[in-house]
Amino acid sequence: MSTVLILADFVGEKATKSTVELATAGAGIGEVTALVLAPAGKGAALAATITQGAIAKVIVIESDDFIQHGVAASADALAHVTDQLKPAALLIASHAFGKEVAGRVAMKLVCGIITDAVDVAPDCTATQLVFGGSTTVHSKVPQGTAIITVRPNTITADFVAANPVIENATAQISDVAKKATVTSTQPPVKGGRPELTEANIVVSGGRGTNGDFGAVEAFADSLGAAVGASRAATDAGWYPHSHQVGQTGKTVSPQLYVACGISGAIQHRAGMQTSKNIVVINKDPEAPLFELADFGVVGDLFAVLPPATEGVKAHKA
Amino acid sequence: MKIAVCVKQVPDSWAQKKMVGGLLDRANVDAVLNDLDEYAVEEALRIAEAHGGNEEGGANTVTLISMGPERATEALRKALSMGANDAILISDPVFVGADALLTANVLANVIEKGGFDIVICGTESTDARMSVVPAMMSEKLGWAQLTFASKVEVDPGAKKTSITRVTESGVDEIFAQFPCVISVVEKINEPRYPSFKGIMAAKKKVIDIQGFASTGAELTQSWSVVVDAAPRPTRAAGVVITDDGNGGVKLVDFLGEKKLI
Ligand SMILES: Cc1cc2nc3c(=O)[nH]c(=O)nc-3n(C[C@H](O)[C@H](O)[C@H](O)COP(=O)(O)OP(=O)(O)OC[C@H]3O[C@@H](n4cnc5c(N)ncnc54)[C@H](O)[C@@H]3O)c2cc1C
Ligand SMILES: Nc1ncnc2c1ncn2[C@@H]1O[C@H](COP(=O)(O)O)[C@@H](O)[C@H]1O
After folding, report:
1. Is the four-CA dihedral A211, A259, B261, A130 of positive or negative sign?
2. For the domain bounded by B1-212, which CATH number is listed?
3. Nearby residues of B253 by Cβ (< 8 Å), 6 or more positions away
4. Which residues of A touch B101 (CB under 8 A)?
5. Mean pLDDT computed over every residue of chain B
6. Which residue's C-alpha comes closest to atom 8 of ligand 2?
7. Is the pLDDT of residue B14 over 80?
8. Residues A160/A55, Cβ–Cβ less than 8 Å
9. DSSP category for residue A43
C-alpha cells in the first residue's frame, strides 16, 4: 500500500481541522503518516492534540530552528522525511506558510507541486478551481511524489478517532536554511469566533458598515459564524487585517457567505466566489456582487440585519 | 545595490479567461503587468531612492526580470516607465506551459548570473495564484527568504535587510544579510503612476530578450501537468428582493429553506 505524508497543521498549539482534512484526503490514497514539527520540548504536547483523522503514524521532530528560521527550516525537515518515506503524495494545508514550505520542498527534491486543491483523488489527481472559480482544472504529477497543498474547508473531513503510533525523529537543518532569522513573532489576534477559513458560515462587512460592525457581529453570532471584512473595511481600520477576505486576504469556501455593504470588486470575489451559498445585502441594486447572490436583499444593512438576527435566534430556539 | 524585481505579465483580472488544451488562452485576452508586482517595483524604487538613487551615476540599479512571451515587453515598458533602469525578458517557445518549478529555476539562474544583492517579487501572480515562486527561488539560490513583507528596511552599509512578515500565522520580524529574496504584500506602499517623462524615458531603456540557452538553466519537463480543464456551470441566477421592512424575515426564510440554520 502506498504511503501518504501530511504536514500536521496547527494554530497555536492545537491541531486544526485542516489536519483532519489532509488525513481524509490522504487516506483515500494510502496509509497516512503525519509529520509534526515542534519547538524543543513541545513535540509530545502538539502530537497529543491530533485526536481525529485516519492517521496511522505520527513522526515528531523537535527543533527551535522551526521558530527561529521559519519556512526554510521547516522545509529542510519536511524534505528530509519526504525523501526517506518516498510517499505517493505529500499533502500540506494551503496557506502562506504551507505553500512556501511546499514550494521549497518541491525545489529541493525536484517534485511537481500543485497548490490550492479542493479535492484529491485516490490516484493523486488534484482538482483546482481557477479564474475566480469559473473553471475546474484537474492536474497531476506524472512521476515521483506529488506535492499538493489543499485549501482548508473544501474536503469533507472524516472525524474518525486517531490512534497513531508516535515516533520521534531528528533532521539536520542546513546553514542555508538558517540565513533568515525571526526576531519576534506575534500570533494573530483570536476572538471567541470560529476561524475564518474553517467556518461553515462567514458574515462579512464592507464600507457599507461605515465602521460599525455591531450588526454584522450580532448576526454572525446568531449563526455561530466567523466575521470577515472587505479591504475597504480593514484599510479603514474598522476590522483587523487578519479578517480580510479576498485576493490579498483569505480565501474562504463556507456553506454560507453573507456579504453586508460590500460592492463586489473582483479582488473581493476572488476570496469568496467558491462559497456554496451566497447572500448579499446592499443598498445599491446595481452592486456587482448581486450577480453571485443566491439570495439578495436590496436594502440598508442596519435595517435588514437586526430582524434577521432575531429571526435566526427564534428559529434556533 | 543591485536590485532585481521579478515581474510577470498576466491576463487582465477583469477578462473572461479560457483554457485551451490545458493552457490558459493568453492570446485572446488583454495582458497587463501583474498588479501585485507593481508594489515590488515601487518598493525597489523607494529603497534605491532612499540610499543614493538609481538615476545615471546613482548608487543603485533596478533591473526587471520576467519570463514570458515576447509581448511581455509591454508590461516591462510600464514598469520601466515607473523608473526601473533596464529589463531582462526570458522568452522561448520551450517555456510554453512552464510550471512553478521550471519558472523558479530559470529565474533563479538569471538572478544568480546577474550578481544582485536583493530580489523583490510580488506575493502572487494573479493568474496562477500560487505564491510559491519567491520561496522556490530562495531555495534554489540558497539565499535568505524574506517573504510577505509589509515593511522592508535595508542597510546597504551592513548589507542587512529586515522585514515585517504578515500572514495568517501572525506578524513576524525577520532579518537577514544580503543576498536575499523578498516578496511584498500590497499594503506596503502605493505604486506611483508613470509620469510623462518616465514614459518617454522608458522608450529608450534596454529590454534584453534572452532565449532559454543563455539562462544556464537545465531544461526539465514541467513536473505538474493539467489533465483537463472545463468551465464550471455558471451559478443559477438567485432571487433578489427589495427590503420593504420584511427583508430580514425573508432572509431567515431563505436560510431555513436551504437548511442553513
Ligand atoms: C492589489 C489589490 C488587492 C486587493 N485585495 C482585496 C482583498 O483581498 N479583499 C477585498 O475585499 N478587496 C481588495 N481590494 C480592494 C477592492 O478593489 C475594493 O476596493 C474593495 O473590495 C471594496 O470594498 P467594499 O465593497 O467594502 O467597498 P465599496 O466598493 O465602497 O462598497 C461599499 C458598498 O456598500 C454599500 N452600502 C453602503 N451603505 C450601506 C448600507 N447602510 N447598507 C447596505 N449597503 C450599503 C454600497 O452600496 C456599496 O456597494 C484590493 C485592491 C487592490 C488594488
Ligand atoms: N514568469 C514570471 N516572470 C517573472 N516573475 C515571476 C514569474 N512568475 C512568478 N513571478 C514572481 O513571483 C511572484 C509570485 O508568483 P506565483 O508564485 O506564480 O504566484 C510574482 O508576483 C512575481 O514577482
Report:
1. negative
2. 3.40.50.620
3. none
4. 106-107, 110-113
5. 92
6. B8
7. no
8. no
9. H
B124: Cβ–Cβ under 8 A, 6 or more apart, which residues? A247, A248, B36, B130, B131
Are A126 and A154 spatial neighbours (Cβ–Cβ below 8 Å)? Answer: no
pLDDT tens string A263-273: 999 999 989 99
Q: Across chain A, what does the average pLDDT equal?
A: 95
Cβ of A188 within 8 Å of Cβ of B170? The answer is: yes
Q: Strands of A112-151 (E only): list them.
A: 113-120, 126-130, 135-140, 146-150
% of chain B residues with pLDDT over 70 = 96
Give me the domains of chain A, ranges plus CATH numbers: 3-178 (3.40.50.620), 196-316 (3.40.50.1220)
CA geometry: angle B138, A252, A248, nearest 5 deg: 45
Reported confidence tier of residue B220, pLDDT bands at 50, 70, 90:
low
46-85 in chain A: CB under 8 A from chain B: 70-72, 75
d(CA B259, CA B254): 9
Burial class of residue B233, CB neighbours in 10 A (0-12, 13-18, 19+): exposed
Per-residue pLDDT band for A174 (boundaries 50, 70, 90) equals very high
Express each pLDDT in A37-76 by its tens digit.
999 999 999 999 999 999 999 999 999 999 999 999 999 9
Residue B186 in grid coordinates: 500590497
- Residues comprising chain A, all counted: 317
| pLDDT at position A133 | 77
B67 lines ligand 2 (CB under 6 A): yes
Amino acid sitting at position A81: V
- Distance between CA atoms of residues A134 and B34, nearest Å: 20
Residue A291 CA to residue B1 CA, distance in Å, equals 49
Contact A288, B230 (CB under 8 A): no
- State ipTM: 0.91
Number of residues in chain B: 261
The predicted structure's pLDDT at residue B178: 97
At A140 the three-state DSSP class reads strand
Residue tagged 489532509 (cell numbers):
A22
pLDDT at B97: 82
CA B16 to ligand 2 center in whole angstroms: 21
Predicted TM-score (pTM) of this structure: 0.92
Q: Are B33 and B78 in contact (CB under 8 A)?
A: yes
